[in-house]
Each structure stands twice: as structure tokens, then as C-alpha cells.
């Protein structure tokens, strides 16, 4: 191989090697938009059914027949801004909407003399800011895995409607409280600017006994990351 061919070959190899390197930024600001599904993990439909019996029982009414439905999952999404301190550590501030948990029951009740159509519905929504820190482990040039630990300041709004013989009574309760959250995930960098993220996060003890009770909410999401200069 003559000198000119050797130089061309060396330049081509170097050029290919440079094109194949797409390390995620070791430090700097970034944003992540993400979305997926949130689901309540420890909500008990049987306990909610018993609550319905207790509600009507407190008014001197007995359940004749009833059917109920629980929808414990919904679309969830969020937007996060973060700063990566180095290749092993980052901090993020996000706003997350975990969607709604819905429960409904319909049937007939009796006061011992007459029967009435009756129903009860509860809709509980959860959203709020989240601060978390990430421990990051790079795997090769493009892929990283991470663990997350943080604090979520969740606002939980619950609307309850009771129907009896065509008449409806509605009540609303709102609660703001802090909740522990944690999660794991992985990220693949397309280049120095863009990456895609897959994550699982758990928000612990969301809600209160004044609403539908405390539940753990899990979120599985896919996100797109953009790194600033």
C-alpha cells in the first residue's frame, strides 16, 4: 500500500470512528417530554363496594342489587427539566399528570317499603411537581441505566356523586401532600443532542382516606430527551 492510499484509508477509518461515537452529554442542561400509562396498584374494588353499602346504610337504605366498575389506569404524561452534573449524577424537576382513577356503582336500594334507583361515582385525579435525583451507570457509548429517588408534591382532586331516585348530590375534596417516589429506567442516545428514555416510576401513598384512600400509582413511560449546549 503506497503512502497516499494509506493516508486515505486512515482518514476514512478515523471519520467512521468519529461518526459512530454518540456519547450522552456528561454535564449540562436538558429537557425530557414523556408519556405513557399510570395505574393504581393497591386499590381494592371490594372495599369500595363496601363503602357504597355503608353510605346508603347510614341513610337507612339497604342494597337490593348492584353492579360496580373500577377503572384504575389512565394516560399519564409530563415534562421535565434537568441538569446532569457528571456521567453518574443528575437532578430533575418535572410536572407530572398521573390521570384519573374512576369508580362507579349502580343498582336499587330499599327503605323496607319502597325501592329506588341509586348510584355512586368517584373520580380522582392526580398531578403535581416532582423533584428527583438520578444515579446513572453508562453502558457503552450510547446506553445508560439509571435509578431515581425523589419527592412528589401531588395535588389530588376527588369528585363524588350520589344518585337516589333521580336526585343527585355532588361533593368535591382536594388534598395537597408530599409523596415519596422512586423508579428505574434506561436511555439510548442517538447523538449528542437527542436521546430516547424508557422508565418505570412509583408514586407512593397518593391520596387520603377522605377521598378514595391511599394508593400507590405506577407510571410506565417513554420519553424524548434534548440536550442543550
How would you describe what is shown here?
With 229 residues, this protein is mainly β. It has one domain (28-227): Porin (Beta Barrel). The protein has helices at residues 3-19, 45-57; strands at 28-40, 62-71, 73-86, 89-110, 115-139, 143-164, 167-189, 194-206, 215-227. It has an eight-stranded antiparallel barrel. A hairpin with a 2-residue loop joins strand 6 (143-164) and strand 7 (167-189). The two termini are 42 Å apart.
Topology:
Blueprint: H1 3-19, E1 28-40, H2 45-57, E2 62-71, E3 73-86, E4 89-110, E5 115-139, E6 143-164, E7 167-189, E8 194-206, E9 215-227
Antiparallel strand pairs: 1-3, 1-9, 2-4, 3-4, 4-5, 5-6, 6-7, 7-8, 8-9
Stretches with pLDDT under 50, minimum 5 residues? 1-22
Beta-strand proportion: over 45%
Radius of gyration, in angstroms, nearest whole number: 26 Å
The first-level CATH class name:
Mainly Beta
